């Protein structure tokens, strides 16, 4: 996490624990999950997450109900990915697009917006449906 240094965001023990839980997770986490994974008290976890979001280190991922979820910003995780969002239980999981899909999205979006004057920095691409548990349930 050397990349954090320029932000001059002091990494207290609690912030460090919160970041470690997010860093080790393969999906965005609710505040409750951050609390249970890090042992940081709930009110502190809310504050730390808000500070980290403010600093651009953590991003909020909107699910479907069940509160916001959080993950490391892609510039820090170095992991470009997309999300599967379950519209029944709100679970959000990560999936890695194939290089072909990435190229296709970028190429098509570039072509569509070529004359719009819009400067593209990145894309967000979520897929909605029902997770395995909800389909089985
Ligand atoms: Zn589900
Ligand atoms: Zn992508």
How do the strands and helices of this protein lay out in sequence?
Elements: H1 13-24, E1 29-30, H2 31-38, H3 42-54, E2 58-61, E3 69-72, H4 74-77, E4 82-86, E5 92-95, H5 99-113, E6 126-129, H6 132-136
Parallel strand pairs: 4-6
Antiparallel strand pairs: 1-3, 2-3, 4-5
Bound molecules: zinc ion (2 copies).
Class by helix and strand content? Answer: alpha+beta
One letter per element, helices H and strands E, the order comes to HEHHEEHEEHEH
Q: What fraction strand?
A: 15-25%
The count of β-strands is 6
Q: Note the total helix count.
A: 6
**Overall pLDDT metric:** 90
CATH hierarchy, class: Alpha Beta
| Portion of residues within helices | 40-55%
In this entry the ligands are: zinc ion
Name the quaternary structure: single chain
- Measured between the Cα atoms of the first and last residue, the distance is 40 Å
Keywords:
137 residues, alpha+beta, Dna Ligase, domain 1, three-stranded mixed β-sheet, 17% strand
Could you walk me through the main structural features you see in this protein, from its secondary elements to its overall organization?
The chain is an alpha+beta fold and 137 residues long. It has one domain: Ferric-uptake regulator, C-terminal dimerisarion domain (Dna Ligase, domain 1). Helices cover 42% and strands 17% of the residues. The protein has helices at 13-24, 31-38, 42-54, 74-77, 99-113, 132-136, and strands spanning 29-30, 58-61, 69-72, 82-86, 92-95, 126-129. The strands form two sheets. It has a three-stranded antiparallel beta sheet. Strands 5-4-6 form a three-stranded mixed beta sheet, with no helix packed on it. β4 and β5 form a beta hairpin. The model has no long low-confidence stretch (mean pLDDT 90). One zinc ion binds at residues 86, 88-89, 91, 130-131, 133-134. One zinc ion (ZN) binds next to α5.
């Amino acid at each position: 996490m050397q990349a954090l240094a320029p932000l001059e965001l002091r990494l207290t023990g609690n912030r460090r624990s919160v970041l470690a839980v997010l860093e080790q997770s393969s999906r965005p986490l609710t505040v409750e999950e951050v609390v249970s994974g890090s042992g940081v008290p709930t009110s502190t976890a809310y504050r730390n997450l808000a500070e980290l979001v403010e600093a651009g280190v953590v991003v909020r991922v909107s699910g479907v109900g069940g509160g916001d979820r959080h993950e490391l910003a892609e510039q820090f995780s170095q992991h470009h990915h997309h999300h599967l969002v379950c519209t029944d239980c709100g679970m959000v999981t990560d999936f890695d697009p194939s290089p072909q899909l990435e190229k296709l999205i970028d190429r098509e979006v570039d072509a569509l917006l070529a004359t719009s004057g819009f400067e593209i920095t990145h894309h967000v691409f979520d897929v909605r449906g029902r997770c395995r548990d909800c389909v089985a349930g």
